[in-house]
Please model this.
Amino acid sequence: MLQKLLDRRMSYLLLVCLLALSAVGCSSATAPVEQGSAEQPKPPASLTPKTGGTITIGYQVEPDTLDPQKTALSAGNFVGGLLGGALMVLDPYTFELKPHLAESYAISEDGKTWTFKLRKGVKFHDGTPLTAAIFKESMERAIDPKTASPVTGQELTTIRSISAPDESTLVLQLDQPTAPLLGSLSYAGYQQPILPAALQKFGSDFGRNPVGVGPWKFESWKTGESITLVRNDDYQWAAPFVKNQGPVRPDKLVIKFIKDNQTLIAALDSGTIDIAGVPAKDVKKYKDDKDFTVLEGMQPVESFIGMNMENEILRELEVRKALNLAINKEALVIADLQGEGVPVYGPIPPTMFGYDQAVEQYGYKYNQEEAIRLLEEAGWKPNGQGIREKNGKTLSLTMIVDDPKPGHQLIQSMFKEIGIELNIQNYESATAHAQAVKGSFDLMATDHGSIDPNILDLFMNSNQIGGLNFFRIKNKELDYFLEKGSTATDAGERKKAYAAIQKLVVDQAYWIPLYSAKTFQVVSNRIQGVEANPLGTLTIQDMWVNE
Model:
């Protein structure tokens, strides 16, 4: 539910990145994770990349507009990212933020002055050179309240002023140090520069006539069906981690909109599309099929159970710890993900910046005996029905859910085995949100996802009670480290802050981390140049059609 709520508010929400198959533009992560894997053998080395042909991607969401500053959808960022580019880019192999349309950048000692030197030779699709003045005008349009930018502008609100002292220098003055901004400036769709002449020419129709600086140029949009892009033959400024630094090799790229998952899979099987994201429950047949390559990656998303800290029972640390110890995470991975995921032990998943591997040692492991011991010592004794009681109160909790999963019944059984009664209440998303805002819940099964751990500030900072801190967490020490993680511009200092946050959250057992799911991209083997990376994204820049 938290992901759904944040999709329109925060451009650094994970899905923006993971749906961007071109692997251009996300924020930074530094945790070592298992390399993404290709399930089929790589093509013979003798195959030489060819120019020509068409790649067709099946995509379940159609953009609302291709004006990057007007779109509220991750689909707009995805398609826009193919047409554009941003100052920074995420390397999906090293998880480092690297300059892209910028060739370098510097941040002042106080963290408030950011200076970017633009890459030379970058041009818009109509041949207009990219200058700092154009970037300045583009950013100012995004920030202007008249634009009403739902995502792009919101990510730039910490910028007080923008200047362009010369053609290649862009200077951002911030109100305060804001570490996550650098990641926001890596979204190739949302944060791409906009050509003023194109805005003037097309006006309100610009969203249907985009002009960018990216490897693909806009050709056509058939509403409800597809968007077709063509190769930009002048492109020479690819991201630093790709092999092909020149123009893309296919003539065309078609994004075909197929909402229904089974219809999407049928299109993949028939050859109507070449690439699609496939859920874990459907991926096995492709792993066994010589005509397809399966790329898998790990989302920086975790499923968890949040606890309402205003609940009298849950104020007891021993109860919160017991709930954590009662959970067999490995069993939930099998039940919900067919084994295609990993257990998570703290509030930050493994592919998110700041992840501390030490949490795998000190985080709660399944230990039913220890859970029972804690409850016994806290005075919770089983009644005749096997449910624990203390001072006339029954240890009975209600968990609200807006996305029912098989694992929820398993959790109910796991709690019952230690003498806790769990009632599950299913709601549709809007109702679940309303219940959460009111605090009308004991436990809430949900998930959170981002590529920057600053997302935890929304869920755990005491100043967010009444907002997205549904769990009513109040901890001054936690607030301190959340603030430090948000404002420190040194990566090492940020990592220290988030390591402290993970330890504190586990020690206080504020929520129950469950797992992170794997993602899968299935690619027809008529498409070559497919490389695996830990995020499971596809670098379209290196792909070519073998036919």
About this structure: The chain has a mean pLDDT of 91. The first strand starts at residue 37 and ends at 38.
